[in-house]
Specification:
263 residues, alpha+beta, Fructose-1,6-Bisphosphatase, Chain A, domain 1, D-Maltodextrin-Binding Protein, domain 2, 8-stranded mixed beta sheet, 5-stranded mixed beta sheet, 8 helices, 15 strands
């Protein structure tokens, strides 16, 4: 059943990407859910499409989405219809759809799809991570002066904390960037384009698929399991192994125990 659901997810997220691309670059109504928190009609349309397709295929499963919410369940789909909506709304081609399938509070597989570049990152617990079907691995860089960390921003956290974290990373030698899509930021750690992603607070729909990808690609991650994290969110860290400890100390985000098996 898990294999069947994973195949369904791969196909569904690409179809959702086609729907999203119909609205990219078009004039659209834009609402603000909060400070720097954008919403377009395409977000809602995509989430409704995903919710309906999953309900038809797997009516016993729960659904938890950024726009329509939901509740925890033993088998749960966690979905962000567009991560990077501010980029999408400004016609910047750096956004994605993120989906994860969770059983008893733990992600079993996850997908992140950038429909502009046709890049599908996918991971299944215990079976590694891929980009368009080809295996990926985190960066082998261990020198902070040759490493890039993407640092996410959240309105839930005081600006002083964000600036302090950025200062700490810069002082240690890291390059720091912010590109506006946490899910893609995590995917880029999994495939080695960045060495780490860190954010003081992320919602589960933004990060749960990406954290699994980084772990399956050989990286170190924080713990993000259980109902409280899924429903309320929390701090996120994902890193190449050679840099995980200093970034964890700078960010004050504990790492989960490393996987015993090497990927």
């Amino acid at each position: 059943m898990l294999h069947e659901k994973a195949d369904f997810c791969r196909q569904l997220i690409v179809r959702a990407g086609e729907l999203v691309m119909e609205g990219f670059g078009q004039t659209r109504a834009i609402e603000m859910k909060g400070r720097q928190d954008y919403l377009t009609e395409v977000d809602g349309r995509c989430e409704r499409f995903l919710r309906a397709a999953i309900a038809e295929a797997y009516p016993q499963d729960g659904f938890f989405g950024e726009e329509g919410g939901g509740s925890d369940a033993a088998t749960l789909w966690v979905v962000d219809p567009i991560d990077g909506t501010a980029n999408f709304a400004r016609n910047i081609p750096h956004f994605c759809i993120a989906m994860a399938y969770v059983e008893n509070g733990r992600a079993e597989f996850g997908a992140i799809y950038n429909p502009v570049l046709h890049e599908l990152h996918f991971a299944v617990r215990g079976h590694g991570a891929t980009l368009n079907g080809k295996p990926i691995h985190v960066s082998g860089v261990s020198d902070p002066q040759a490493a890039t960390v993407e640092l996410g921003w959240s309105a839930r956290i005081p600006n002083a904390d964000y600036l302090s974290a950025m200062s700490g990373l810069l002082d240690y030698g890291f390059n720091v960037r912010r590109a506006g899509s946490g899910a893609l930021g995590l995917a880029y750690v999994a495939d080695g384009r960045n060495e780490a992603y860190a954010e003081r607070h992320m919602n589960s729909w933004d990060c749960i698929a990406g954290l699994l990808m980084v772990e399956e690609a050989g990286g170190r991650v924080c713990s993000f399991e259980g109902s409280e994290k899924i429903l309320q969110g929390g701090p996120v860290l994902a890193s190449a192994p050679g840099l995980a400890e200093p970034i964890s100390e700078i960010m004050h985000i504990p790492l989960a125990a490393p996987r015993e098996e090497a990927r």
